[in-house]
């Protein structure tokens, strides 16, 4: 007979691991299993990102993103301090380089104030003083932005989960989910063999596979995950101190992507990127990776065509710049003219899991779906790494509500 777990969490990215760890901390008497198809944690989005603890600049006031990101800054910083994980509070400058961007910068500044962030508008001279290698007409200075390694954060959460009594099954790809009145039955594949688990409640945090696992559970969805590649370059070591802050452009408010930025990484290097181009394989990181199932799913989905048509011009420019390095360089030279073509050294890409609705709407906010015995994280793009602790906390609350549970531990003690 299969062991019946109280809760099962699918997904060894930061959202799944944070959720499993917090569930085990809050409900120490429950048996909790975390299932991941790769041989370790953070193999996908969590291990291929910019490593920024976002302050919450961009997000619509009242949205889950605005709320969780703000709470996530405090929770992540506290978690890292407690576990001696390096964090650098370098701050960030959003630099306007054209008159149109100056207008957008003003609107963004007001949004920051609505979101209760500690930000400052600085003029051209002050920008030059703070960042001698950056040019622009002005900038928003955000003091609370920091950098970290989300791989390291996730590893530590996994350790905490195990120490609190949690179980982990790696190399196990979930292929079938069946919900009945009393349980959820999970079938997986490990080394070509079928493996089964039963749980009273299931949480799915499967990133780029979110739509597939939600449908696998029999939940009707009107969204699909569309993969957008984010391609980076790394600057040579001599440029490790080219900037003092993270340098971002003023983003296009219609797009959920932030624009190619200069990011100081926690290992001391500086990356340029990421751009946003169409991915043809959800979990394929090479430039010309292609997966037939992923492509067929995409081209048979009306939302893909609608969103692509809506952003056709941007998409074509991004694709051109992806293949033509001087075009990519131009995006950085707008605010950092001294970087040359030969300074753009290879660096691994990431792939964003972006939920798109049938009508072509890009889902900006975090999105969840549920059935009687399951909860699915359907859209957790940036800043979900920053927000992973509040997202996990939110899921714990939802489960407690659904199952009528009392937490054994004070939530505030968890981080
Ligand atoms: C280029 C890029 C830059 C970013 N920069 C930032 C940033 O600076 N700051 C920030 O806060 N956020 C950033 N993000 C967003 C952030 O990385 C993600 O929002 C976050 O990592 C999502 O975590 P996750 O756990 O939901 O997904 P993932 O990390 O993708 O994890 C999902 C896991 O589910 C597993 N899985 C899927 N299907 C199955 C199955 N059938 N069976 C078993 N396991 C399965 C996968 O193997 C994977 O390990 C960035 C993202 C990208 C791509």
Automatic annotation (TrEMBL):
- Tell me the domain of life: Bacteria
Q: Does the keyword ATP-binding apply?
A: no
Stretches assigned to the FAD dependent oxidoreductase domain: 6-397
Q: Which cofactors are named for this entry? A: FAD
Whether NADP counts among this entry's keywords is no
Q: What keywords sit in the KW lines?
A: FAD, Flavoprotein, Oxidoreductase
SUPFAM superfamilies in UniProt: FAD/NAD(P)-binding domain
Instruction: Choose one Gene Ontology CC annotation of this protein and give it.
Output: cytoplasm
GO molecular function annotation: (S)-2-hydroxyglutarate dehydrogenase activity
Which PANTHER family does the UniProt record give?
L-2-HYDROXYGLUTARATE DEHYDROGENASE, MITOCHONDRIAL
Q: Give the family this protein belongs to, as stated in its UniProt record.
A: Belongs to the L2HGDH family.
What protein is this chain from? Hydroxyglutarate oxidase
Write down the species.
Vibrio sinaloensis DSM 21326
